[in-house]
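Bumping with the actual sequence this time:
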Amino acid sequence: MSRMQALTVALEHAEKERDAALLVMQRAAAQLDAAQRQATQLHDYRAEYQQRWSTQFKREGTIDILHCYQNFMARLNTAIEQQQRIAEQARLGHQRAQEALMERETRAASIRKLIERRAAEQALAQGRHDQKATDEQASRISWASRAHLLTA
């Protein structure tokens, strides 16, 4: 296997890894979005619930209802805190996935650049070889025509 073939295989492998990392990052972004939406919904629901019951308690309320309200708010606050932790974990997962994607993109770009550089070097070497062959041919023709003139 030539060096260029090996680099091409390496590039294909790096691009597959990059594509896989992109899918992981997209999934992580979707999970982060869902977790943040859920946290926002819980937060909004708590604010709405507090507002509704605040109005209710201004009119009337018993101790039993107040205890139920306080217990429910405690469970709701726990749920919000838990969802915020889930959202933070999702954010960290998304960040790690982005970093992995950047790593793989950089690797693929590096290999692609190396292939371009090697191709340019080969083209330059081939151009020099062709120029040398052309110069030698021109020199032979010149020597042949001089030799022909001297013998004539």
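The tokens above came from a reply further down the thread. The mean pLDDT is 91.
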